[in-house]
Amino acid sequence: MALHPVLHTVTQRIIERSRARRAAYLNHLNAAAQQGKVERAQLSCTNQAHAFAAMPDNVKIHLKEAHRPNLAIVSAYNDMLSAHQPLEAYPAWIKEEALKAGATAQFAGGVPAMCDGVTQGQPGMELSLFSRDVIAMSTAVALSHQMFDASLYLGVCDKIVPGLLIGALTFGHLPAVFVPAGPMTTGIANDDKAKVRQLFAEGKVGRDQLLESECQSYHGPGTCTFYGTANSNQMMMEIMGLHLPGTAFVNPGTPLREALTRAAARQAAHIAAQGENFTPVGRMIDEKSIVNAIVGLLATGGSTNHTLHLVAIARAAGIDINWDDFDELSAIIPLLTRVYPNGKADVNHFHAAGGMGFVIRELLSAGLLHEDVDTIVGRGLSSYANEPWLDNGTLKWRPAPAVSGDDSVLRTVAEPFSADGGLRVVAGNLGRAVIKVSAVKPEHRIVEAPAIVFNDQNDMLAAFKRGELERDFVAVIRFQGPRANGMPELHKLTPALSILQERGFAVALVTDGRMSGASGKVPAAIHVSPEAVLGGSIGKVRDGDIVKLDAVAGTLEVKVPAEEWAARELARADLAHNQFGVGRELFAVFRESADAAEAGAMSFHHPLWRN
């Protein structure tokens, strides 16, 4: 199938826009590569002796042989978080398989992994976005010893995978294989969980019932099963060719999961160390790979957080994308999945119905993905239209199902859930923002109502509990951007806004903060840029101003005469309470240097990564 003309046009525009930065990035890669040598060959004998002094003798022998590749393991393991707990066993498996493949492997370092589910609505959430940059930096520390010829990255959730990939691209002369843990098995129905949350918000059930419901939903090892940022990460790694095919949504604790992890180690050895199959990640991930990631996000109704993370990831590879690219592609990419919060199913249901192999084959057949890309298994994305299985204990791949196992969850390009990807850019005198409409009913996509302005999400919740929000309104919640307080997710607001919408009120949210992949049926214009702290017009809104959020026309307007709007002073807020406690004082440098949301909210000052 010929490539869709819009996909071609957007890709070419990105290539041209990125030409100078991408060339400079690739020059840095060339300078970092040690042609014909393993990485540790440039180290002195003393350097090397320090690096493998603690290794077992059978590993140390191989590390002394300068022709054998050595694999880095960089892991986000901890046993508090369900998504990362399964990673505990992976390093031993990887080391065993590396030796069988004629290589060695060392645990190079760990990176932090925090959970937005634990910190949601809490002060710790203000560290969340910038933990991505800390993870990238931690990855750099792990790889700075220059002992490694390829890397395996073990991570799953929201900021962890983007941070690992930014770090990997900083060491882009090394191959990179991403190794997921998979989703936990299915718990209670998502609708049931959401209903209990709403009842609790209305004071109709107690905290004991709420906790029991949540524990039945989040109940075992693995990723949360709704289609939020964590599972969007796994989709993205697969469609970018950084996973083994079909790896994303295999449950932990299964023979297939272990077989795939072991195979990932063998594949890392296969593409390492300047051999015939040498696949440095910085060359592998190019403009077409990044466009494929955007397409996958749109086709599956993925997390709005990736309008930040993908921009940052692309910049780490010398590639310049922006929200207009997302918006233009969204108009032509059909929505092929309905996974909670965009439907009732979870990712296990999606995987069983045909999963990523089905989605990739459908998009390729319609000319909506670039097939001519490099992956960790070779040239061409067609390999990812397959799924793994065990044939009497032997790992094999077969074509993904030809027919969806459940067309309420997964559909073809010919009969999609909607003709577009459901992610829009809205713009006007309030600034630029993004809105995810894939879960928003058509009748709720245009809201025109008086503004009620808050500078803190807790103030809005307090007003809701006092019964002051029983009316049509647009909640404008500002001073939530990267420079203000680290841009926390405001998902804590979802139950209250959902209740008001269900009571028949026209409600919407406008904020310079984030929602998440869990954002759902209430229209929310998020990531408003510029943010209030940087002089954005969101700082001019006053209570009672008529705000029109039109996700159909793509506008975000305050209906105030232009002269009055121009003359208004910007609001100020006391942000002192956001600067201390739960480690926030240590993150001041990130807040002070963060880029705008559309630029990826990056805190790094490398010339290739800044506007």
Automatic annotation (TrEMBL):
EC numbers on record: 4.2.1.12
Domain of life: Bacteria
Cofactor: binding details: Binds 1 [4Fe-4S] cluster.
Keywords: 4Fe-4S, Carbohydrate metabolism, Gluconate utilization, Iron, Iron-sulfur, Lyase, Metal-binding
Catalytic reactions of this protein: 6-phospho-D-gluconate = 2-dehydro-3-deoxy-6-phospho-D-gluconate + H2O
Residue stretches making up the Dihydroxy-acid/6-phosphogluconate dehydratase C-terminal domain: 409-601
Pathway stated in the Swiss-Prot or TrEMBL entry: Carbohydrate metabolism; Entner-Doudoroff pathway
Matching InterPro entries: 6-phosphgluc_deHydtase (IPR004786), Dihydro-acid_dehy_C (IPR042096), DiOHA_6PGluconate_deHydtase_CS (IPR020558), ILV_EDD_C (IPR056740), ILV_EDD_N (IPR000581), IlvD/EDD_N (IPR037237)
Pfam family for this entry, one: ILVD_EDD_N
UniProt cross-references to SUPFAM superfamilies, sorted A to Z: IlvD/EDD N-terminal domain-like, LeuD/IlvD-like
GO cellular component, one term: cytosol
Required co-factors: [4Fe-4S] cluster
Binding residues for [4Fe-4S] cluster: 157, 224
HAMAP family listed in its UniProt record: Edd
Function: Catalyzes the dehydration of 6-phospho-D-gluconate to 2-dehydro-3-deoxy-6-phospho-D-gluconate.
Entries under NCBIfam families matching the protein: edd (TIGR01196)
Family: Belongs to the IlvD/Edd family.
Designated name of the protein: Phosphogluconate dehydratase
Lineage: Bacteria, Pseudomonadati, Pseudomonadota, Betaproteobacteria, Neisseriales
Gene name in the database record: edd
